[in-house]
Write a structure and sequence with these properties.
4-stranded antiparallel sheet, about 180 residues, about 20% helix, 3 helices, 13 strands, alpha+beta, single chain, 3-stranded antiparallel sheet
């Protein structure tokens, strides 16, 4: 049995959840999100809670059970609080600047990198070396952060590049004299 899947997802006040036409939709103060329901999983919206369980006793249903419950939890958290990822830029001359719907990155290339910010995502640059990505869809926030990080991954010698806040970069030793 799935330990995660057994726990129902509580729906806070001000959030509505509806189950119709093979979709679970959650609407809250920050917006609306929905997922396609899976045939092997049963969903129940009742008493301010969303319960997720296997619809049959197949291995596939048991495998998807915990993941589907986590996806439902992400919907509820997204429409109430939202998700944020923070990137830190390290390196001489490396900087970022959010301008409207574009993030301008200077990462040591011969040209500036202009990253188009997708709809539903907010990017802020509190200072030149910090990029805050936020939105209601956890998958989309993580994908945008990964695409920005891909422009200059941190290197193991000096640690220059774009890294997630809290990420540890294993540094290699220099030459021994």
């Amino acid at each position: 049995m799935s330990r995660i899947g057994k726990r129902p997802v509580s729906v806070p006040a001000g959030v509505t959840a509806t189950l119709a036409d093979g979709r679970l939709s959650v609407k809250g103060p920050k917006g609306e999100l929905s997922i396609v329901t899976h045939d092997d999983i049963s969903y129940a919206v009742e008493d301010g809670r969303i319960s997720v369980g296997p619809a049959n006793s197949t291995r596939r249903a048991r495998d998807f059970w915990g993941m589907q419950r986590t996806l439902v939890q992400n919907l509820v958290t997204g429409v109430t609080e939202g998700f944020t990822k923070t990137l830190e830029i390290t390196g001489v001359g490396y900087r970022a600047n959010a301008q409207g719907s574009t993030l301008k990155l200077q990462l040591g290339y011969s040209h500036d990198v202009d990253f188009a910010i997708p709809e539903g995502i907010t990017v802020k640059t509190p200072d030149q070396t910090t990029v805050e990505i936020s939105g209601i869809d956890r998958q989309k926030v993580g994908q945008v952060a990964a695409e920005i990080r891909r422009w200059r991954k941190p290197e193991p010698y000096k640690g220059k590049g774009i890294k997630y806040r809290g990420e540890f970069i294993f540094r290699k030793e220099g030459k021994k004299k």
